[in-house]
Amino acid sequence: MRFTKYHALGNDYLVMDPRNAGPLPSPAQIRRICHRNFGIGSDGILWGPLPSTRAPFALRIFNPDASEAEKSGNGIRIFSRYLYDCGLVTEAPFTLETAGGLVEVRIQKGGRSITVDMGHVTFDSAKIPVAGPAREVINDSLTVKDRTFTYCAASIGNPHCVVPLASVSPELAHTYGPAIETHPNFPRRTNVQFLQVLDRAHIRIEIWERGAGYTLASGSSSSAAAAVAHKLGLVDDKITVHMPGGEIGIEIGRDFAVRMTGGVTRVGEGTLDPEMLDGAE
Fold it and tell me: Which domains does the chain have, with CATH numbers?
C-alpha cells in the first residue's frame, strides 16, 4: 500500500492513489495509518484520483477518526500538488470534484504555491447545518463548559463555527474546541475557529478541526474565518490569515466567493507494511 506525504503549513496528509495503493482502507485501518505512534501519522488521507463525470478528477478526504470530510482547503492544495508531481496536470487551471462541491485550482511556482477557488461561503443555518429556526447564523450565543461565546456559523462545503475574540491561544482551542465540535447545535459536528482580528487586512485563528483535533493550519477554516470577519465588517476583501503553521491569503469576491492561496511541501513517499495493520480490520 503506497503513499506520498505532503504538508500544507504543518497540516499533513497522506495521498493514497487507488492505482497503486490497493483497496480503500477500512475505517479501523484509516485510524491506524493516521495514528502518530502506531502508524505513519497524518491529519488525514486523500484518496484519489477518482473518476468523475463533473471534473477531470475527483477526491475523497478522510479524517484521522475515519470520518469523511466534504472539503479541505489544505487537502485540495496537497492533492493538486500530487497531481502536478505525477504529470497529470500542468499550471493551467483545472477543476477538481470533492464531496463539498467543485473547485478550480491553479498551480504556481512549480507546485510550491497553489490557488483554489473554494466556492461561496453561506451563513444559512439549513445549509451549514445549524439546529434551530432558519436564519443567518451571525452573532448567536453558545455555552460550553464554563463560558458563553458569541459565534457565527458558515459553510464552504463543510461546516464551521467561528468564535471572534479579543485574543486567541492554542490553550483556548484545546479547552473549548472539542465541546463546540460536538455541540448539539451542529448535527454533523463542526470545525471550530477562534478568531482574532489584527487589522483590516490580517486575522489570526486557532483551529480545532472536526475529526482531527488541534490543527496547525487549515484552508477551509481560513476561508470561513475570513468570510465571517468580512461579513461582520471587520476586514476588507483581501486578508492574510495567520496560523501556528504559517499564512494563507484569502480574497473575498462577490457573494462571498473565496479564493485561497497557500504553500505545499512534499515530505516523501513510501510503502505501508501490512504488519502495521495487524488487528485493524
Answer: 2-119+264-272 (3.10.310.10), 120-256 (3.10.310.10)
